[in-house]
């Protein structure tokens, strides 16, 4: 089992494998995104027939820069039902697609089961198609995660590869829907933490997957930017204070939305009343659309497009205020999270303030969007890159100033509850006891009162049954526990013939939900999982050997 190749060659082989997998995953997610866009267009058309209202769309996603209809009272009655369904389908424990993406990474690759992911996708599709404040990007983010899960079913991936590629799948989907692959890749690496910290190890796989996904997606629908903006020029020096005022206002509104999210008690939003609150949210959306303005229907990206193009004046601030209210009330029940709802609120507020201050509304729109998105998702660099992608490189200095100012003033709160403050807080980088699968219970070694029983103990056995049973040894300060499926070349072999690198030992075999001692005569089956006790460098060497052809 010991490879004759030097460690440098093994590292190069591992890197090449991840590069290939990232590109293949991006192409797969790009293809799935094509199907998703066709489905979303169908659902939006169906929702338009029900509510008798079609909001404007972004030019990059094939939308029209105008609204149709006024919203039929009887059709708007469907919104409370859709709100209740969305709140029920998207579980409070896991949250919206972006929350699931971040939380699964920090849980060392333990993403929600496939059934929960499909329910979440169904909830986002219903909400967006019906006109609720669900971002178009939410369904794409979920599709990227499903694409990574599909690849994991056909390709044997270790835990690190699965974590990295799931983030890359999310980046590929976001790059397609935002028409900004580089910004999407940076956003996924940046949104994991509230502070200005990154997962540098995942940046390049995310970039490769996002570029590949956008390339495939663009072959079907073109490569035009998401927003169609007039020729943006460098703002004049006398106007800079006004643009900074727009950034400060958007920052204050974003910070206020984070405080307003706490108005509803958690026991309401996460308990049995969750569907009721979803219905109330849908009813409030319908009431605003009927008695004030139907511009609150949809994720707002189309209205931001109109504002940036100069078709909205000061009334854009009113549209943004209503959307701010809905985002603050709906974020806790997965209605208003994601990228585009925050971008739309900040963009509309910026457009309205820019019109009142007499400055370029296109620049003011993007400055407001950058500041608001920075506050809600804690992604200052990605927010600036989005503005540059949509508005041109002349916006780079102002976008960076706006995002830096917003991030400095807003603190470490955010709309993504699974975000952590810093890298040191993530279990991925924790120096504590290593991760074990849900089917394995770790217990510190005891001195047994009697001879250990040779029979395996189920993981869910009562505490009394575990006394004196065979248990896994506690990891030392230098060694950690790892779990992986049985390599294909080990199937049918007995443990006594398995050769391992120095510093690696098998301490358990998970079979049918129970943990068995690694007795030398035990024959491995393809469905078994092995628990290794090893130093991190020794286990990395083992994984490198197993990736070699014929290993």
> Separation of termini?
7 Å
Shape: globular
Mean pLDDT reading: 86
Query: What profile does the largest beta sheet have?
Result: 5 strands, antiparallel
- Global Rg: 26 Å
Low-confidence stretches: 1-13, 431-477
What percent of residues adopt helix (DSSP H or I)? 40-55%
How many helices in DSSP terms?
20
Class from helix and strand fractions:
mainly alpha
Order of helices and strands: HEEHHHHHHHHHHHHHHHHHEHEEEEH
Percent of sequence in beta strands: 5-15%
- What strand order characterises the main sheet? 3-6-5-7-4
Number of strands: 7
Produce the secondary structure layout.
Elements: H1 7-51, E1 53-54, E2 68-69, H2 73-76, H3 78-89, H4 97-106, H5 114-130, H6 136-154, H7 159-178, H8 181-190, H9 200-221, H10 240-260, H11 266-269, H12 274-291, H13 301-308, H14 315-330, H15 340-357, H16 361-377, H17 380-391, H18 396-410, E3 457-458, H19 463-466, E4 480-485, E5 504-511, E6 514-516, E7 529-534, H20 536-546
Antiparallel strand pairs: 1-2, 3-6, 4-7, 5-6, 5-7
Helix pairs in contact: 1-5, 1-6, 1-7, 1-9, 3-5, 3-12, 4-7, 5-6, 6-7, 7-8, 7-9, 8-9, 8-17, 10-14, 10-15, 10-16, 10-18, 12-14, 13-15, 14-15, 15-16, 16-17, 16-18, 17-18
